[in-house]
């Protein structure tokens, strides 16, 4: 084998890899938006359907991502806001917020009716791999019903902490998780209201 | 092709038709006591199941051999014998279509696809039984209990597994299990009838004593260890021997010629391993009885066990 | 022209991959529990065989022999990731069902086998015909096995009930051992049929 052969091999392999890599990058860019849409549609939409009603647009395409603070590592925390409209008029916004539960974070999606700013409904986000901890307490309407129709600046803590929510007996940790998630969500809403509605 | 003048091959030799036929007749006679007991306890339903199974097995054998263009071999009675053993492993309420699917699988997937009798690496009856277990769990657990006598529709092993040892005396005594006044597959309930049949087979030299005896030793050995370690929760060896399919599997299923080893040491190992696996499944497995599963599993080791050969004389 | 047709059609019967070469069996066994997943994976494989055959054949004069396998794998992997991304973007449900089997097309021996045995020595047009034929043959085989398993096993076809509602479903066929039995019987039947066809040809000649 001559040096020429070796260089030839290296060049060919490098060029082929580069071209393939470049092609893949293009495909990835071209499909990224659609993939994200599909993921949200299949993972988040079932929960959105539960909390939004009476709309005639597609909230999954009418969405916006805003930055809501930074986490401990200094990375931006992103929250995706979904808009439900009827006849072109905004009737509600929905987004997901997290509270800590018994076995990790509990994701809760909540909708806020517009323009009167009352909480519409809450639901646990579906996760195809493991059922979320929040899902268990949210399956019964006992906890959910306590939230519907409350104004955004109500105190959403548990009543043991001076709030308006009664914990579900036997699932106190999960109830705390859900109520923290809602409380966090309301904080985000109040703080970034101009971004959300703008 | 030139035919060699003398073919030297290891056992099992496929015998001439007459001899196979005689063995099969003895085999079926040996099953008669168990079949009779089941009819006595379960009523005419058991006869119907046995009849459908035997007739459909012979019919499938006839049809499949015709279609495949093979010489007809129903007169050696292996099909009928398979059908009879298979019926012994079915619940007394088995629906006719399920029995027909089962016998079809015995003949096609258990025997004919491998080239006919003697070439099958597995016991066709077990293949069919496993397929039915995987597909029709409900129909395969259609137990009948003798009205007015039992308060349960579960088999003794199901009670042991799901209700615990202390519930067993409420429903069954050891004597019940021995005679067969219990729930279960048609042929497995009566230990005494199977014992009579098995001894008959050994006396007529259809099977040798090695596999059944070592099978039972395996069961007694492992269940004895469990029992000594924890007599509150584990049933004693006698119960494990009499309940479920140990007798049926040991005498009539594990001794299937093509799929069991042929040397004495191979047979002893094979039977003992079957007994151990049976108990492992009963103790830790998801199923309540492991007698038939274990025979199927261990029969995969047969080619290996056949390698254990006695030393040639004089070396 | 005649040779193009010949290269295309050989993949459909004479050399149909899973049954003649016994290639790509893992996916044949795994995804044939329902028609829709079988067709979905088959479509992916058609795209990958065609693309890898065409590219390998186009580059056949440039690729040094010693690194050819590496180059083939790079090309095949690229095609597979394109399939994966596209499926994720437009057929998300199918993507979820097929899961790991899409990336595993990379190691489907059918694809590498065609690149190595055919495309590396033949012109682009012939390789295209070969890849298309092999891919379609593979998909049809998947479809046949999946039809048998889904109709007899579950009583449905493409998810639509075809058997009477009383049909209990022969669940055994939907489980892994059922896949092996099904495949074995298909192989046997293929051999019986082609033995008959050969005998007829001989009798005619």
SSE inventory with pairings:
The complex is a heterotrimer of chains A (198), B (315) and C (205).
Chain A: H1 3-43, H2 45-51, E1 63-70, E2 76-86, E3 89-101, E4 104-113, E5 118-124, H3 133-138, H4 141-144, H5 172-191, H6 193-197
Antiparallel strand pairs in A: 1-2, 2-3, 3-4, 4-5
Chain B: H1 17-42, H2 44-67, H3 78-88, H4 96-108, H5 124-135, H6 156-162, H7 168-171, H8 174-179, H9 191-203, H10 210-229, H11 237-242, H12 246-253, H13 264-284, H14 291-299, H15 302-305
Helix pairs in contact in B: 1-2, 1-3, 1-9, 2-3, 2-4, 3-4, 3-5, 4-5, 9-12, 10-12, 10-13, 13-14
Chain C: H1 2-10, H2 17-21, H3 25-31, H4 35-58, H5 68-90, H6 92-98, H7 109-119, H8 124-154, E1 156-157, E2 160-161, H9 176-204
Antiparallel strand pairs in C: 1-2
Helix pairs in contact in C: 1-8, 4-5, 4-7, 4-8, 5-6, 5-7, 7-8
What does this structure look like?
The complex is a heterotrimer of chains A (198), B (315) and C (205). Chain A has 198 residues and is an alpha+beta fold. Chain A has one domain (45-197). Chain A has helices at 3-43, 45-51, 133-138, 141-144, 172-191, 193-197; strands spanning 63-70, 76-86, 89-101, 104-113, 118-124. A 5-stranded antiparallel beta sheet of chain A has the order 1-2-3-4-5. Chain B is an all-alpha fold and 315 residues long. In chain B, helix 1 runs parallel beside helix 3 (78-88). The longest helix of chain B has 26 residues, at 17-42. Chain B is globular. The mean pLDDT of chain B is 85. Chain C has 205 residues and is mainly alpha-helical. Chain C has one domain (2-204). Helices cover 71% and strands 2% of the residues of chain C. Chain C has helices spanning 2-10, 17-21, 25-31, 35-58, 68-90, 92-98, 109-119, 124-154, 176-204; strands at 156-157, 160-161. In chain C, helix 5 (68-90) packs across helix 6 and helix 5 (68-90) packs across helix 7. The longest helix of chain C is centred in the C-terminal third of the chain and has 31 residues, at 124-154. Classes of the chains: A alpha+beta (198), B mainly alpha (315), C mainly alpha (205).
């Amino acid at each position: 084998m001559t040096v020429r052969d070796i260089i030839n091999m290296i060049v060919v392999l490098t060029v082929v890899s580069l071209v393939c890599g470049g092609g893949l990058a293009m495909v990835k860019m071209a499909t990224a938006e659609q993939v994200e849409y599909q993921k949200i549609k299949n993972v988040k939409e079932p929960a959105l359907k539960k909390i939004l009603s009476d709309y005639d647009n597609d909230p999954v395409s009418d969405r916006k991502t805003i930055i809501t603070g930074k986490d401990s590592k200094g990375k931006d925390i992103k929250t995706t806001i979904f808009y439900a409209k009827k006849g072109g008029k905004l009737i509600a916004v929905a987004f997901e917020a997290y509270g800590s539960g018994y076995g990790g974070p509990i994701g809760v999606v909540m909708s806020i009716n517009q323009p009167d700013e009352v909480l519409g409904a809450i639901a646990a986000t579906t996760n195809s791999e493991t059922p979320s901890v929040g899902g268990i307490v949210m399956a019964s309407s006992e906890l959910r019903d306590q939230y519907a129709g409350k104004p955004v600046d109500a105190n959403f803590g548990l009543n043991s902490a001076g709030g308006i929510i009664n914990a579900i007996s036997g699932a106190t940790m999960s109830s705390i998780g859900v109520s923290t998630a809602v409380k966090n969500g309301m904080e985000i809403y109040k703080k970034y209201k101009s971004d959300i509605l703008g | 092709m030139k035919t060699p003048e003398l073919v030297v091959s290891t056992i099992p030799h496929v015998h001439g038709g007459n001899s196979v036929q005689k063995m099969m007749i003895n085999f079926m006679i040996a099953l008669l006591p168990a079949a009779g007991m089941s009819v006595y306890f379960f009523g005419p339903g058991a006869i119907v199941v046995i009849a459908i199974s035997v007739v459909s097995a012979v019919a499938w054998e006839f049809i499949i051999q015709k279609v495949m263009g093979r010489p007809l071999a129903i007169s050696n009675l292996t099909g009928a014998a398979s059908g009879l053993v298979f019926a012994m492993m079915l619940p007394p309420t088995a629906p006719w279509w399920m029995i027909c699917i089962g016998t079809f699988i015995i003949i096609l997937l258990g025997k004919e696809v491998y080239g006919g009798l003697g070439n099958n690496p597995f016991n066709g009856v077990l293949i069919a039984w496993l397929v039915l277990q995987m597909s029709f769990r409900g129909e395969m657990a259609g137990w009948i209990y003798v009205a007015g006598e039992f308060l349960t529709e579960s088999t003794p092993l199901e009670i042991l597994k799901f209700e615990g040892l202390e519930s067993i005396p409420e429903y069954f005594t050891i004597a019940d299990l021995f005679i067969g006044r219990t729930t279960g597959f048609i042929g497995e309930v009566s230990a005494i009838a199977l014992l009579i049949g098995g001894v008959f087979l050994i006396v007529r030299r259809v099977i040798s004593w090695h596999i059944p005896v070592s099978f039972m030793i395996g069961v007694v050995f492992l269940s004895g260890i469990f029992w000594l370690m924890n007599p509150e929760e584990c049933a004693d060896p006698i119960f494990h021997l009499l309940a479920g399919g140990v007798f049926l599997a040991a005498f009539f299923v594990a001794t299937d010629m093509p799929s069991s080893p042929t040397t004495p040491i191979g047979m002893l190992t094979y039977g003992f391993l079957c007994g151990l696996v049976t108990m492992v499944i009963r103790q830790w497995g998801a199923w309540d009885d492991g007698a038939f599963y274990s025979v199927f599993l261990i029969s995969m080791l047969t080619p290996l066990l056949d390698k254990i050969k006695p030393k040639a004389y004089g070396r | 022209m005649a040779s193009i047709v010949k290269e295309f059609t050989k993949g459909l019967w004479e050399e149909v991959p899973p049954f003649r070469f016994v290639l790509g069996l893992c996916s044949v066994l795994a995804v044939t529990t329902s028609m829709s997943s079988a067709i979905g994976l088959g479509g992916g494989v058609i795209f990958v065989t065609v693309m890898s055959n065409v590219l390998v054949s186009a580059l056949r004069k440039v690729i040094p022999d010693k690194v050819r396998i590496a180059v083939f794998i790079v090309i095949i992997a690229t095609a597979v990731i394109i399939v994966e991304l596209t499926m994720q973007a437009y057929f998300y449900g199918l993507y979820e069902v097929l899961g790991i089997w899409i990336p595993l097309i990379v190691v489907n021996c059918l694809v590498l086998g065609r690149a190595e045995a055919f495309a590396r020595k033949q012109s682009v047009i012939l390789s295209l015909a070969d890849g298309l034929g092999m891919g379609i043959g593979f998909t049809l085989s998947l479809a046949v096995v999946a039809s048998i398993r889904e109709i007899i096993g579950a009583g449905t076809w493409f998810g639509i009930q075809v058997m009477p509602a009383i049909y209990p479903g022969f669940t055994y066929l939907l489980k892994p051992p059922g896949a092996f039995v099904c495949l074995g019987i298909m192989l046997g039947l293929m051999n019986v049929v082609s033995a008959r066809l050969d005998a007829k040809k001989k009798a005619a000649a």
